[in-house]
Amino acid sequence: MKFMLMMNAPRGNGDWSVSDWTAEDLKAHIGFMKRFNQELNEEGVLVGAEGLASPGQARIVRAGKAGTPEVTDGPFAEAKEFLAGYWIVDVETPEQAYAIAARASTAPGPGGKPLYLAIEVREVMGGPPVDP
Amino acid sequence: MSRTRDERVGEHLLRELAPQVLGAIVRRYGDFSAAEDAVQEALIVAAQKWVEQGVPENPRAWLIHVAARRMSDHFRSVLARRRREAVVQPLAGDDLELRVDPEPERDDTLLLLFMCCHPSLTRPSAIALTLRAVGGLTAAEIARAFLVPEPTMAQRISRAKQVIRTTRARFQEPTPAERAERLGAVLHVLYLIFNEGYTSSEGSSLQRVDLSSEAIRLARSVHHALPEHGEVAGLLALMLLTDARRLARTGKDGELIPLDEQDRTLWDRAAVVEGVALVSEALSRGSVGTYQLQAAIAALHDEAARPEDTDWPQILALYGLLRRMSDNPMVTLNHAVAAAMVHGPTRGLELLLPLDADPRLADHHRLAAVRAHLHERAGDHPAAIAAYRTAATRTSSLPERNYLLTKAARLAAAK
């Protein structure tokens, strides 16, 4: 079964809380993510993973009258959290997905301390079931 | 570029022979990874030579001979390296002569399956290794079939091989006592491969290896090796009888069509006939198992020309037998469905009640979906709508969710 693990990050001060981090903290965080993805790959469970650009870059798009894209800056000021990135993993049980999410949640932040970010775990829908 | 028929025949033959040759080489030399390389090289040589010179009289012996020679080369170079490193150790398998028995190809495929489905492997690893080593699929093909990236699948396969190496599972023949259990594990892995193919989402299916057909092919080879084994025949029959309905079970937009609404003229008659013959013969031999019973139930569905011709009393009796043989709550659930068909929806709903206390099924979408159907048949639409919606939130199948939501919406509109 496949699960999407969505990492939600607090918005913090300004555009993105990571903008306040020191270079060492950033380096540790990036190194953690790189190793984590490598581990998931070696465990044979990684389907995909991406980090997303800062929420300030986000645009909201709706189709206009003739189907033309109508693009606006997102009204993100009131949002406390945003989607920072996601993983899709292929595992045997939901518990395995939860265990991977817990590992992601320990990504280090300022001072090298675990961030304990909230990871939303959702199962990816599959095809038709087996007939009884 | 189109290829000649001969080339395709040769390709097919190579795929059939590959696991037998690999089994023979691993049995002889033990080292799985080296054996795999040697067999790959032999297959490449064969693909060229056979097109130029025609297929040899005994293609299997030819391949084993070439692969064995590669193994000898491999061991000689290992030996030479060790000599250079002054750590000389005696190595088995240094002679070229490999006797090719006329009949052991059956056992070789089976032994390879025993190794690939070894209990020390996780199920995804066993599935990947089986498709690679016995099915002869590439890591890329397996990856596409499971909709995962190729490196992920390649990792699964190499981890599986590593486990085989480190646990020294290698290629030991199971003892007679172990054999039944190990065969059970093999059948379970084949069943999982079949289900994966049967339930995989649509999408780019044209570029994907059909896992259901692959599972049927592998089950056939086990049946060929053990023609007298009832459960092997039962599993092959179950796959054929289930796969026979594949074209009819989804509409053109991928929407789910339940059994009683399927266009039965779309069912694959040849597969039904073969499956029915297999399961009938297996059951006549006396030792009944769960795959045979499931196949017998599938056969009763497949043999009914119209839904109303379905022999539900017989299906109910078979689920009764199945319940006594396995502690699977899904069987209890299906037993309740059959009871409802024979004795009415109220009886079915009664039989569902104990399942609410079973943690394996209490929150399962199938329990809610069956309850919804039975409430609908009993005329209790509000209860049916609620249960359909509950089931829709719990299923992880997209076509099934759409089906359940549509059922709820239709009943709600009819109020």
Explain how this protein is built.
The complex is a heterodimer of chains A (132) and B (415). With 132 residues, chain A is of the alpha+beta class. Chain A is 24% helix and 31% strand. Chain A has helices at 23-42, 94-105, and strands at residues 2-10, 46-51, 59-63, 69-73, 81-90, 118-123. In chain A, the strands form two sheets. Chain A has a four-stranded antiparallel β-sheet with strand order 2-5-1-6, covered by helices on one side. Chain A has a two-stranded antiparallel ribbon with strand order 3-4. The model of chain A has no long low-confidence stretch (mean pLDDT 88). Chain B has 18 helices and no strands. Chain B is mainly α and 415 residues long. Chain B has four domains: 1-93; 108-225, no CATH class; 227-310, no CATH class; 339-415, Serine Threonine Protein Phosphatase 5, Tetratricopeptide repeat. Chains A and B meet through β2 of A and α5, α7, α8 and α18 of B.
Core attributes:
heterodimer; A: 132 residues; alpha+beta; four-stranded antiparallel sheet; two-stranded antiparallel ribbon; 24% helix; 31% strand; flat; B: mainly alpha; 4 domains; 18 helices; 0% strand
Which percent range describes the beta-strand content of chain B? Answer: under 5%
Protein chain pair with the most extensive contact, residues per chain: A-B, 22 and 37 residues
**Biggest beta sheet attributes of chain A:** 4 strands, antiparallel
The shape of chain B, in one word, is elongated
- Radius of gyration of chain B (CA) equals 25 Å
Q: Tally the helices of chain B: what do you get?
A: 18
Distance between the termini of chain B: 60 Å
- Unreliable stretches of chain B: 87-99
Percentage of residues assigned to helices of chain B = 55-70%
